[in-house]
Each structure stands twice: as C-alpha cells, then as structure tokens.
Amino acid sequence: MTEETTDLATRLRELAESPAPPMALDLDAAKRAGRRRRRFRVSAAAGGCAAVIVAASVVLPPLLDGPSPAPQASSPSDPARPPVPTAKTAAGANPMIAKAGFGWLPEVIRGVEYGVGAHGDYTLAIGDGQYPAMIWLAVYDKEPPADRLGEMGGEAVKVPTKVGDRDGYWVTVNPADPLNGGDSYLRWRTGDGRWAELNAYYLDIPDVRQTLLRVAEGVTVGDYPVPLPLRISGLPGGFHLADGLLSRRPSQDGVPWTMQLFYTVNGANVVIDVRPEGGGAPDGRGEPVCTTENSLRACVRIDRPNAADLGSIGGAQGLLDRITLLGPDERDWTTTVIG
Hints:
- There is one protein chain.
- The protein is an alpha+beta fold.
- It folds into two domains: 27-225, no CATH class; 230-332, 2-Layer Sandwich (Phosphorylase Kinase, domain 1), CATH 3.30.200.
- The protein has helices at 3-17, 27-44, 48-57, 208-217, 250-253, 305-308, 315-321, and strands at residues 97-101, 111-117, 122-126, 134-140, 157-163, 166-172, 184-189, 195-201, 220-225, 230-232, 240-247, 258-265, 268-276, 289-293, 296-302, 323-325.
- The strands form three sheets. It has a twelve-stranded antiparallel sheet with strand order 5-6-7-8-4-3-2-11-12-13-15-14.
- Helix 1 (3-17) runs antiparallel to helix 2 (27-44).
- The longest helix is centred in the first third of the chain and has 18 residues, at 27-44.
- The radius of gyration is 21 Å and the shape is elongated.
- Mean pLDDT is 78; it is low at 1-26 and 32-87.
C-alpha cells in the first residue's frame, strides 16, 4: 500500500467516525498530502543511502518526449475498466453522477474510480502495485487559477498545447518541463465551454506527454450515472448525500472494489458500505448491521441512532432490508439505484 492510498484509507476511516456535518472526504487535501510525501521521497533520493532506499521502492515517471511505441488501448470487455456509462437516468434515482469519463486509457491503468460529494466530483483512473499510476479527471465551470491549490512549489506557468483540435495547456513551475517533474497538469476547454483537467503522477510509461494527450482526447464531459452494485427500495425523508465513493484498491481493501454512500439525516451519519464477500466491514462509529447476498456483503452504520430517528422503518436493520445486492459481476449493476 502506498503512503498516498494509506492517507486516503485513513481519511475514509476518519470520515465514518467524524461528527456531521460535514461527512465528506477532502480529496484535494488527500492528493496534496500524497504529493508532498512524493516530493520528499524524490528529494531524499538525491543523497546517500536514501537514494538506494527510494530507488528500490519508488517508481517515478520518465520525462522523455521522444518517439515511443503507441500505447495499447484498454480492453472494453474488462469489467474492472468500465467505459463511462451512457444511459441517462433521473439524478434522484442514482446518488453517483459522474461529470466526465475516460475513453482510451494506457495499459498501466487497472480500474476507474468515481467520487461525488461536498468536496468535489472526480473520476480517477488508477493502476496497481505499491505506487499505482493515477490520472485524476475533474471538470470546472470556469477556468481555474494556474496553481489551483497554491501548492506547486513555485510560480506556475502555462505551456500551450493542443488536445485534439482544442486549445489547452500544461501547468508547470518549469517552462522547460511541461510535465512538472512527473506531477503533471493538463487543461483544456471542452465543447460546452467548461474546463477539464487531468492531474497525473506515478506513470511508469515511456512517453507521458503523448499518453496524457491521447487520454485527454478520449475524455467525454457530461452527467452520467455510475452503475452501482445495489438497489435501495426507498430512503426515508431527510436523507442527504454527503459523499459517494466507488473505489478500486485491492491492495488496500483486499477486494477488487468497495462502494460507500455517506448520508446525513437529522445531524446523524448513515453509512452504506457494499463490497465483495470476504472484504470485511468498514471502520467507524456505530455497530454495523450487515448481510451477505449474491456474493456481496452490505453493512449499514448509524453513529447516532436516536438522532437519525429511523424507528419507523426498523432502524439500521430496516434500512438494510431495503437493499438488494446485485452481485459482483458489474454487468449486472444498475444506474437506477433508489426507488
């Protein structure tokens, strides 16, 4: 497990244990922390024994722009690498609506994650191993500042490029290195006037620049419901989604994927967690109520049951009884999740 994924796992556990509101994971903070650790490791590699230790454990993306073999397209038949959903459905029927999706992805990517919530929506193409490749995709209504988070460690500049026939640019602190030392930012204006951004790192591939441009060309922007492994017959009034996560971190969770829906109701936190059987139950406050069906395990946690006031439906067990698990085959998942 990487320090970055460990950081995300810790934040998810804190998420389940924190008082409401908010209940959301601060994804930008998690990414910033991971990049700070990455920069520290790179700096440490410059001297003495640290160079040997880091070289043995850290895979850094090469920064070459010369000719390289054409990257291979991802397999559309691999359920761990699903294309962006195309079926439209009512937003209220699906708590996870992606703002954009990937088309082509390099072979180093092993899955696509989605997140929605108070701290931003994202689509993440992720690899595997100790330091998995990561390509974060986000969409903004307006063009963000060059150094959007103010933590690039220098004066950010824009290096013009083309994404297909659209104008775009790299954001870097070194004009001679558009890829910004391997922590790469690529932005372009989309067809509907919004701005898309890729933030990529840990890419162990021969030609990072051309690969990211090709990934960007395949991005589609729009509201797409994400297929999920459950159906909920109905939620009581007062439920508000704080965050939704579909993660693919087998080295972290011991299963191919996990899904969490974090709700708030009357000041209480309600967590619905679904994962393949054998993946255990999520940490957090409140005693979990769990069931296993169709090779999946679902758990419901409520940190303050009295405040949640779900007695009319039977509390956590009553909410769990409203959940139908659709099985581990992602082809059987649904975009009509609630109702």
